[in-house]
Amino acid sequence: MASAIVRSGIRSAIRSGVSTPRASPASKRTFASHGHHDEAAEASKWEKITYLGIATCTILAVVNLSKGHPHHEEPPAYPYLHIRNKEFPWGPDGLFEVKHH
């Protein structure tokens, strides 16, 4: 397909006597990003959307974190959960456990 287009361009250039083939306006490629939009206005719009999203997420986080949550009762202290056959070098409690006084 591409070779047919090239051959057609070469033939038309030879017929017209022009040494360099010119692209016709119909075959000129236009890109979608090359629109008539103002880039500054588009950037400003997305900046406002970003700040609105940040504010919305912050408000939702504050509302969700300020709600109370249920506190469950402490499970009974079963003796088989805390078996110590030998004392630790640092004392009866574990190294990272809360000491019960």
TrEMBL record:
Gene Ontology cellular component annotations, sorted alphabetically: mitochondrial inner membrane
Gene3D superfamilies documented for this protein: Cytochrome c oxidase, subunit VIa (4.10.95.10)
Localization per record: Mitochondrion inner membrane
The protein's name: Cytochrome
A Pfam family hit: COX6A
Disordered as annotated region, ranges: 16-39
Keyword Mitochondrion annotated: yes
Main location: mitochondrion
Similarity comment: family membership: Belongs to the cytochrome c oxidase subunit 6A family.
Alphabetic keyword roster: Membrane, Mitochondrion, Mitochondrion inner membrane, Transit peptide
Origin: domain of life: Eukaryota
